[in-house]
Design goal:
431 residues, alpha+beta, Cytochrome p450, three-stranded antiparallel β-sheet, 12 strands
Length: 431
């Protein structure tokens, strides 16, 4: 969705309120931006709203029937129970040394650019870092040419799908050679995952302490069953994509905001220096770095990675006094939810103090949901938050960032996720 199309939707909200019927690309749907209305669909009545629509069928074409795209049947419930312990705080903590070690490697590689003063496009290196973290955490492996091809293939898929999903309806272009190209790319993505799994099948799991080993041997406490090989492949593909692509965008936006707001950056530096005194952060340090977390939260508000979601009403319902007939497509735009002026005064302004404990307590709890809500919320949110926090802290320990003189504002490209349009070029100065 281009910026002018987002402006169109913002204008529609101003004219029609928090809930209204709209026709996008010839498809009638109900549009929601109020937190209570979205909570009703995703939490209170989640069983009445499924993922059987074009948007999620398109996602399933890439991610198969993993947790992200699954319709929500008994298999989804079992797999969610089975995988949940893998992503709790205790499990995530064991991967913090991977995150800090790989971040230290990237910082070392950035030293020449920092010394030269030449602007650096941070998006590419941060994307590589996030992919390295997820591959080492999942499989204990390092990226190679195969993984770099995987990254290139997915970026192309994202770009092509983004043109379809700006308004989620089946466009004519879905029936053109672009569809065949997406299918070919998807086969390549599957092939990379099969290669990783086949490589590990011949090794002893005792040699590894990674997510693959945990998932391979996980047993659902209710059914006593584990993941089938196909389910394991589907979930790993989804975790690789979700685990690196959204995080790299988010950390890029964090550092763009720090460069734009030197006073905020200084507060982060002061906090990091006071708490860590130059040492490498650990998982246990993160609660003692609350202002840095507030900066991340405010960035996720303005640049929510999964910026919209969609459901279909299984039976008739009423949301906020508005009748939702069976079969209605319901579009929930989290980008606009997080800029709703009733809950976020001066919503386009970057202000981490929106996330002080007092400010959070004064705001409706459902007004902020960067990882979704309800039983379908992002299972990897603790992993993502830990990764974002540790990377932000380590970069702040090492560099001060600024915008090149005369740099134009960075726009956003809402594809499947919210990308910086054209990259983010920053100057790095060693502290």
């Amino acid at each position: 969705m281009r910026r002018d199309q987002l402006a169109f939707l913002q204008e529609a909200v101003r004219n029609h309120g928090d809930i209204f019927r709209i026709r996008l690309g010839g498809m009638p749907m109900v549009f929601l931006t109020n937190p209570e209305h979205i909570h009703h669909v995703l939490v209170d009545k989640h069983a009445n709203y499924d993922k059987e629509n074009f948007l999620w069928r398109t996602v399933r074409a890439i991610l198969r029937e993993g947790l992200i795209g699954n319709r929500g049947d008994d298999t989804w419930q079992r797999n969610r129970r089975l995988m949940q312990p893998t992503f709790n705080n205790a499990s995530v903590a064991r991967f913090a040394p991977n995150m800090t070690g790989l971040t230290a490697d990237m910082i070392h590689r950035w030293a020449p650019e920092a010394a030269s003063g030449a602007p650096v496009d941070v998006v590419g290196p941060l994307t590589d870092l996030a992919l390295k973290i997820v591959l080492r955490s999942l499989f204990g492996v390092e990226p190679d040419e195969r993984s770099h091809r995987f990254e290139r293939d997915f970026l192309e898929v994202n770009r092509r799908l983004g043109s379809f999903l700006r308004f989620p309806f089946p466009p004519l272009s879905w029936r053109t050679p672009s569809r065949n190209r997406i299918r070919a790319l998807t086969r390549d993505l599957d092939g990379f995952v099969r290669y990783l799994i086949d490589t590990r099948q011949h090794e002893r799991d005792s040699d590894h302490r990674d997510l693959f080993s945990l998932l391979r041997h996980a047993v659902d406490p209710v059914t006593g069953t584990g993941l089938t090989p196909e389910q394991l492949s589907n979930e790993i593909l989804a975790m690789i994509i979700a685990g690196y692509e959204t995080t790299s965008n988010s950390i890029s936006w964090v550092y763009y905001q720090l460069a734009r707001h030197p006073q905020v950056q200084q507060r982060v530096h002061d906090e990091v220096d006071s708490v860590l005194d130059g040492r490498v952060p650990t998982f246990d340090d993160l609660p003692r770095l609350p202002y840095t977390r507030m900066v991340i939260d405010e960035t996720l508000r303005l640049f929510t990675p999964a910026w919209q979601t969609m459901r279909r009403a299984v039976t008739d319902d009423v949301v906020g006094g508005y009748r939702i007939p069976q079969g209605t497509e319901v579009l929930m735009n989290l980008f606009l939810l997080h800029r709703h002026p009733e809950f976020w005064p001066d919503p386009d302004r970057f202000d981490p103090d929106r996330f002080t404990p007092a400010a959070v307590a004064a705001r409706p709890r459902h007004a902020y949901q960067p990882f979704g809500s309800g039983p379908r919320h992002c299972i990897g949110k603790h992993f993502a938050r830990t990764e974002l926090h540790l990377i932000t802290v380590m970069l702040a320990q090492t560099f001060a960032v600024s915008l090149p003189e005369g740099a134009p504002p960075v726009g956003f490209a809402p594809l499947v996720t919210l990308h910086p349009a054209g990259g983010i070029r920053l100057r790095l100065q060693r502290r």
